[in-house]
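Re: the request from the purification team.
They wanted to know what the chain is likely to look like in 3D before they choose a buffer screen. I agreed to run a prediction and write the result into the notebook, where they can find it.
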Amino acid sequence: MDGSPASPVQVPRTVPGLIRVSSAQEDLWLAQKLVPGLPNNISAYLDVSGEIDRWVMDTALRRVLGEAQSVLVNFVEDVDGPRQVARDPNQWNPFFVDVSGDVDPESVARASMADLVGQPFDLERDALYRAGLIKLGDFRYFLFAVSHHLVMDGFGVAILARRIAEVYTSLATGASIPESGFGGPELINAEDARYRRSGRFTRDREFWRDYTAGLPEPLRLLGDRSSPDLVTLHCSVSVSGDEFTRWAEASESMGVPVPAFLAAAAAGFLHRISGMPEFVVRLAVANRVGRARSTPGMMANAVPLGVKCPPGSRFVDVARGVGAEILSILRHCRYQGSDIRRDMGLSGSVENRFGPVLNIIPFFGSLDFAGSSAVMRGVSFGPVDDLSISVYYDRRGSDGMRIEIDGNGAIYSGEDLRLYSDLLVAFTRAVTANPSGAVRAIDILEPTERALMLRTWNETAVAIPEVTVPGLFERQVAATPDAVALTCGDEQWTYREVNARANRWARLLIGRGVGPESVVGVALPRSAELVIALLAILKAGGAYLPIDPNYPSERIGFVLDDADPLVVLTDTATAAVLPHTDIPRPRLDLHASTSTAVDSGGRSTPVMRIGSARCVRTILRM
């Protein structure tokens, strides 16, 4: 590595012309057209430990982008819809940012990457792939790339990262550069068109029509809304190589492949925090065949996956069930999720019918840049309509694993995502330790969280004000006398009016001997009279005994004999159905004239703050 600028790599320019888009690209293009200002970008960076030659990296990036003809395209619209136009790769330039002199270079680097991710692409004019080197120090770099989702998916990110490492190492060591094996956009489109003309396409459509007909409701979590704007929040957590090895061993002991085990762990975790025994999520699939397996581009798909966690289920059974369900749908995963929605009559709808996304990616391992090691970090797959859980690792497992959770900021907060990340890891650890345990019995709370829920949140002792309920009501009357306090049907009463009528009825009760520890029956239908009657009883100092007029006459008679109230407040219609007793039954007239306030001067004893409540509770128990 001599550190000198390398001469530009000249790449043959693709013959200009319009190229059809694939079905996956067309759906994304339409979505972007509906919300043109929303950055639908996919990004990731390699955290490189060791020395990197800036100019060799510059040459490697130019070489690889010249090979990746499916990435360096623009999108235009003609009479037949969206089309791709090849760009001149010799006009593409990587960037270089040096933040090594900053006090906190990592924070500055992350801010720089976030800024790049947030910049929307002009589909007709911009190069839809930005990549470059960020220097944090002499022996640490971030190799960062962001692209529009129309030209890249998660599998493509891994393909390009491996190829950049391969070309850089060859250039740095003087070795010959192997052929890339990349196909162009024509190859992707030809394979897509061949599938859509085939009998397999028809069989897949029939499969998904039957499958979606019996799907349960999509899983929905209650989040703490963060933003009214279209914003995607992100949270990531690392799992060590040793712990990942334990998870892999647990999956092997169950007879379940690691990707299915991880999908089942995510599904079981979602079941535990939602309580839903059956639900649907979306499973992200690479959707690549033939040479497309080694070609960067946008080919990914997301299809519905039904999950069942019946009461009493053991995790090992859930994992095997999820594994079998995944195998059954993978045979039909080339059928686009947008086609499934269209067949369900959801075309053009924004309804999330299939729940969160699960994305298990077993091909993101460490890479070598001429002796400097690099690991993939910060993978983000663009805006999400709900929640996306991505788990990526290398099959060898030595580099550990990353869990990336993206959430719609209109539904979730950053704290929600951090909590979900922690709980998902805790759940997976629990089922690894005891795969035969019942899912509903798995404890995923940390000791501090359990203490928070059982003790801190239940510390509800508060000072009780030295005031009665009538006193509190009268404070409100004084503050807002003409505000509406009560609505019943088309009629309304202000605080002043309610208080005046309650005062009148309270004086009637006091005149009949009602005071503290007295019991007053209330036999009224649900009405404004009922509300004011209860307030009047409290103003008089008594306790009310609710009597449902719809009860059988014998039941009402038993309650009245047992409680022996001083009076029973009722109205003319209800009085006619009450059993005959000697208890006075004054009829209430809501529209009679009002009266003056009730104070302690009209009572034989003062009102007690808690006595009435005890009396009512005792009577209700009987």
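For the purification team: The domain at 18-451 is CATH 3.30.559.30 (Chloramphenicol Acetyltransferase).
Please add any questions underneath this entry.
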